[in-house]
Design brief:
The complex is a heterodimer of chains A (177) and B (481).
Chain A: H1 23-55, E1 62-67, E2 76-82, E3 95-102, E4 108-111, E5 123-125, E6 130-132, E7 139-141, E8 146-148, E9 157-158, E10 160-163, E11 166-170
Antiparallel strand pairs in A: 1-11, 2-3, 3-4, 4-9, 5-6, 6-7, 7-8, 10-11
Chain B: H1 2-18, H2 20-28, E1 31-32, H3 37-60, H4 70-81, H5 85-112, H6 121-144, H7 148-161, H8 168-176, H9 183-215, H10 229-243, E2 245-246, H11 247-272, H12 298-306, H13 312-333, H14 346-367, H15 381-384, H16 389-400, E3 408-409, E4 412-413, H17 423-426, H18 429-438, H19 452-463
Antiparallel strand pairs in B: 1-2, 3-4
Helix pairs in contact in B: 3-5, 3-11, 4-5, 5-6, 5-11, 6-9, 6-13, 7-8, 12-14, 16-19
Classes of the chains: A alpha+beta (177), B mainly alpha (481).
Chain lengths: 177, 481
């Protein structure tokens, strides 16, 4: 005789069922739920960690690039400065550059060196008064407007100001994105 | 023989504890259609290239430091100081380059033999995803060299990503690991290159191989024998019973030979040629850099440079996405019918067209007429004809105003614009002057940045650029490179 025969109760309950509830579908359903929950417990913090650069804004800091007297009027020159809040191990990659020109006694203009075509660093040619990109020959006039070549828009400008006789440039996120 | 007897007993012990031969035997002896092994070996060769890249990559990881400061120094150490470091790095470079080439050859072969049709559609999709992952690892690997080219390559990649509508700058920040290039960039590239992509690739390769096993290796296509989903599986099973050969050891021979060739070539080239030279450190403030993409992207650079301005987002972003979508939709659009390439002339025609297009773009990128020749020296007096006076001043302006970046005279200068050695034979002075003042889409108008005197001097020089009929002016050999 089958030991699992449901002769024990009038409703045909198997002895191993608990309070009339079938265990197998419950076990399957709950396992699936817990497994999905476990995946979410890893995936959600993981996704936030992975996407953090998109969610954070970098601070904008004014960096000194020299005394006012060090810049001649009408001369375009390259300057170096440090990025805002670089990571402690950034090393050489914390350096940034810009092209700066003093327009008159107090006004300056600063250009991002990234060509607006594909971000290669442009070079300033003093004798021709042109910015020329070494990658695909994007060419800009000294005011940053496009003279020729593939760039779709003028050179990006960085905020620049004079404070207490010091020239300061503001760090910005990468401008063309 | 005591040794052999011992070995046999050891094997029997192992086999009885693992049931290894019961599992592996049927697996590797599974039957495949006849006369398919030499072209289907491309798949195994691709896998081998991936495995060599993985192993050499793991070895490189013993010394590579993925921090912005020390990364460059650690790669120099690997390349020049560590014993056999240059060889391992070279093997990594050649096996991963081989991987990219073999992925292309393998995909083309599968396409030409119509093997993506029923019932192997899903395998084609898995393969397309694998191809995308391989290209991603190719790009991130280029960046991990962490030299000056890596800085600008990353920014160029960000420039591409930035052109995606709506989410462009977020994608750019994701690549950079921040809102600008910096300390987080290299570690992010490293994690993607070493952890995320390989993990996904191992999973997908497992799926890829399983699907080959489950659906069977595709048979040689025959003209006049189209794929009919309702009848295919029965037909295939019968054909295997009649004519199938076991993969191991018969059909597998071609795969072994091909894979061995991949390994041996990687080692040989790694020793003889080595990995790409490193160049300058990754200094974003060093503005005298330039970058050439790695070989597998050179054709794409040509495409990008030739794109019309208004279409940048469509070409930079739309084209790769459209290509990828086309690839994954293919098996669902054309999953039955003739498989033989001669009965599907679109297949060989499109492959030929693609090869020609990519080949021409690739050769064009080697020539790279759009690169300004910054190193062109001023024209010597022997070319100008004099060292004093207006003509000499004009010749100096030809260099100083940047004309020589794009135009050549007597072999000195660039090739972006027309050669001006004998321009006075072709154009009148008025035409030349008009062009200088007004420029063109690829030439800056010099009107705003040239004085009247400068223009006159330049014109008097260009006026002398004229060959008498049938005689070319004495010109020296081109400047030394």
């Amino acid at each position: 005789m089958n030991s699992n025969a449901s002769a024990a109760s009038p409703e045909g309950e198997k002895p191993q069922d608990l309070l009339g509830i079938r265990r197998r579908p419950i076990a399957a359903g709950c396992s699936l739920l817990l497994a999905v929950a476990a995946v979410f417990l890893i995936a959600v913090p993981g996704a936030i960690f992975f996407l953090a650069p998109v969610l954070q804004t970098m601070p904008r800091v004014w960096r000194r690039i020299g005394k006012l007297d060090a810049f001649q009027i009408g001369v375009t020159q390259a300057v170096d400065f440090e990025d805002a809040a670089p990571l402690p191990w950034a090393g050489i990659t914390a350096k940034r550059a810009a092209f700066v020109r003093r327009e008159n006694d107090t006004a300056f203009v600063a250009f991002s060196p990234n060509c607006t075509h594909l971000a290669c660093p442009v070079r300033w040619m003093e004798s021709a008064q042109l910015f020329v990109c070494p990658c695909h020959m994007g060419t800009y006039y000294k005011d940053g407007t496009v003279a020729a070549g593939p760039p779709p828009r003028p050179l990006f400008k960085y905020p620049i100001r004079v404070r207490n006789g010091e020239v300061e440039i503001q760090t910005t996120p990468i401008p063309f994105v | 023989m005591l040794g052999l007897d011992l070995a046999r007993r050891a094997w029997e012990w192992f086999d009885s504890r693992t049931e290894f031969s019961r599992l592996i035997g049927p697996l590797i002896q599974f039957r495949v259609p006849p006369r398919t092994s030499w072209y289907s070996a491309l798949g195994s060769m691709t896998l081998t290239a991936f495995l060599v890249s993985t192993v050499t990559g793991m070895l490189l990881g013993l010394l590579y430091v993925s921090g912005s400061g020390p990364a460059e120094a650690s790669i120099r150490f690997i390349s020049y100081t560590a014993p056999l470091g240059g060889v391992i790095r070279g093997m990594h470079w050649f096996s991963s380059s081989a991987l990219i080439m073999l992925v292309a050859f393998h995909a083309i072969r599968v396409y030409l033999t119509g093997s993506y049709k029923f019932p192997r559609e899903l395998n084609w999709v898995v393969g397309a995803l694998l191809m995308f992952l391989v290209i991603t690892n190719g790009f991130t690997g280029m960046v991990l060299r962490w030299n000056q080219a890596a800085v600008w390559s990353t920014l160029i990649g960000v420039g591409f990503a930035g052109r995606v509508p709506w989410i462009g700058h977020y994608l750019g920040y994701l690549i950079l690991g921040g809102q600008t290039f910096g300390g987080a960039t290299v570690s992010r590239m490293f994690a993607v290159h070493v952890f995320f992509v390989p993990a996904l690739m191992f999973l997908l390769i497992g799926a890829h191989l399983y699907l080959v096993y489950a659906n069977g290796l595709s048979e040689r296509p025959e003209a006049g024998r189209p794929v009919e989903p309702k009848m295919y599986r029965n037909w295939y099973r019968e054909m295997l019973n009649r004519e199938g050969v076991p993969f191991w050891p018969e059909a597998g021979w071609a795969h072994v030979v091909g894979s061995f060739a991949v390994v041996a070539t990687s080692l040989a080239l790694g020793i003889l040629w080595g990995a790409p030279k490193l160049g300058n450190p990754p200094d974003p403030a060093m503005l005298h850099g330039t970058t050439k993409p790695d070989w597998f992207l050179m054709w794409y650079e040509s495409l990008v440079v030739l794109a019309p301005k208004g279409l940048y987002p469509y070409i930079f972003v739309g084209l790769p996405i459209a290509f990828f979508l086309l690839m994954v939709s293919f098996p669902f659009l054309f999953n039955k019918g003739e498989r033989h390439p001669l009965r599907r002339p679109w297949a060989p025609a499109s492959v030929l067209a693609a090869c020609l297009i990519v080949g021409v773009l690739w050769l064009w990128d080697i020539r790279a007429p759009w690169v300004p020749r910054f190193d062109a020296p001023p024209l010597p007096a022997s070319v100008v004809g004099t060292a004093t006076g207006r003509i000499a001043r004009g010749a100096a302006l030809f260099h100083d105003k940047g004309c020589e970046l794009c135009h050549a005279i007597a072999g000195y200068g660039g090739i972006r614009g027309p050669d001006l050695t004998n321009v006075a034979n072709r154009l009148t002075m008025n035409q030349i002057q008009w062009r200088i003042i007004n420029g063109s889409p690829t030439m800056p108008p010099y009107g705003p940045i040239m004085t009247g005197t400068e223009l006159d001097d330049l014109m008097s020089f260009l006026e002398t650029r004229k060959a008498p009929w049938g005689v070319s002016p004495a010109s020296p050999s081109p400047p030394p490179k």
